[in-house]
Design goal:
two-stranded antiparallel sheet, alpha+beta, globular, 159 residues, 3 helices, 9 strands
Length: 159
């Protein structure tokens, strides 16, 4: 699910991969946790002064350790502002600055298995790191499964 909203002229961007039946299969869970680990690795180095190349390398390194990097077929990040894909930085080697808003969205797509998993956050860069602007949306496996099950129960309950 790739969603966003516009507030006072500014955009957001968020992606979650959800198990339709309410529970991840073993394989889906392993891959989801690998993608989540890659996102956490990228977020761990995110701060003013680092480059998008350095941040992306942390995510790729995390996936490489799990032999999944070859399935990460897109970039890790894009700027967000007046447009959901703002073209602010022209080079992945340009240092990030306080106040920039970017996405952090690692993904793994295994065509042979019919599986695609992406987890995306919108974050605001600060001098000490970042602040998630999409933190209210569950990311952990248990939280995501709980949300789906609750949603299914709510639909099954008559008004």
């Amino acid at each position: 699910m790739d969603i966003g909203c516009r507030y006072k002229g500014y955009c957001s961007d968020l992606t979650r991969t959800l198990p339709i039946n309410g529970t991840f299969s073993y394989r889906q869970k392993v891959l989801y946790e690998a993608v989540l680990s890659a996102q956490k690795a990228a977020l761990s180095v995110l701060r003013e002064g680092v480059t998008l190349r350095e941040v992306e390398e942390e995510a790729r390194k995390s996936l490489r350790e799990k032999n999944l990097e070859r399935y990460f077929i897109h970039g890790l990040s894009h700027h967000i502002g007046i447009s959901v894909h703002d073209p602010i930085i022209t080079s992945p080697d340009e240092p990030l600055k306080e106040g920039m808003v970017i996405s952090i969205e690692p993904g793994v797509y295994i065509k042979e298995e019919g599986i695609g998993i992406r987890i995306e956050e919108t974050v605001l860069l600060t001098t000490q790191g970042y602040r998630s602007l999409t933190e209210g949306f569950p990311r952990e496996v248990e939280e995501v499964e709980k949300l789906i099950r609750a949603s299914r129960r709510a639909k099954a309950t008559p008004p």
